[in-house]
Design brief:
With 366 residues, this protein is an alpha/beta fold. It folds into two domains: 189 residues, Glycogen Phosphorylase B (Rossmann fold, 3-Layer(aba) Sandwich), CATH 3.40.50.2000; 157 residues, Rossmann fold, CATH 3.40.50.2000. The protein contains twelve helices and twelve strands. The strands form three sheets. Strands 9-8-7-10-11-12 form a six-stranded parallel beta sheet, sandwiched between helices. It has a four-stranded parallel beta sheet with strand order 3-4-5-6. Helix 5 crosses helix 10. The longest helix has 26 residues. The mean pLDDT is 93.
Amino acid sequence: MAGGVERVLTLKASYFAEYLDFDVTIILTEGKGKPVFYPLSNKVKVINLDINFEELWSCSFLKKIWLYLRKQPLYKKKLSAELTRIHPDITISMLRREINFLTSIKDGSRKIGELHINREHFRTEESENPGMVKILFAKIWMRNLVPKLKGLDRLVVLTEDDKKAWKELNHVVAIPNPLSFEPTIQSSLTEKRVIMIGRYCHEKGYSFLLQAWSEVEKLCADWRLETFGDGDRSSYEALINELCIDRTRCILHGRTSDVQKEYAASSIAVCSSKYEGFGMAIVEAMACGLPVVSFDCPWGPRNIISDGEDGLLVENGNTHLLVEALVSLMKDSGKIVQMAKKARQNVRRFRMEEVAGKWKELFEHL
């Protein structure tokens, strides 16, 4: 459990157990014998069914089909047995393989689906060229998904925009992700550093960011860009060389264990994503007192940033406008301070107690 979805899951589960006194159980299919990656309250029970769907990732297409057909019935059998034993009031699915059979399990619980990515990019491949076969399978899967979602008691999405995208459904609720920490330090806004935190993958738009930065660095010679994240940086390192970017003022780091420290050592955050389910890094940056310059991509940023008030939104994928927005802030320290103050105030609506209250209200309604 080491991704953004898992991070949010452990945060909410711990809060529900510690502060709302809920009896919480997390059921996993992967990682038998491994510790949970993110901190988790010892009041939360963890059950691992040891299905090991990850085995599918490293085999041929035909073997994947064979393994899936063998593992899926086993998953249904084991999950059905656990839910019958636990007899929960509420069962929440992260909308993975269990959505194919979850509503057929008669354990007496209300069933909620929780979606952490916008509809347009749900179940698409995380690559530039996924191939026609994978695209076809994704389309077939999505076509079959809607009837299964109709069987849920509620579908929870992260933004009002994505709620509107599910036109076939009338039981969709929008609840944002919570802020993952209460900041203990704030940026002094004195460091001439722009920061971006996010995985090194095509949807995060690092190629756009570097293209923009190759122009920004010429206009603001005393500023630098530093990025942090998991993933393969080699293609972006090559792009830095191709664009003749000054490596002393543009550094691609690996994952950081202290995001607060890095935000506090910066004065502007940037988001160059092609799409976002929500935009946790934006919320975290604003909480640490940074204005954020972001592409207005589907769907998260526009639901977090108030354009011109606590940050700047620019046309999705338009690197020229991204350059203009970054430079306009870099050359106006007063605007940075003003937006940073608003950012800290406006992001309070994503505090854990606020978001948990929305979930509690949903549970009680069901």
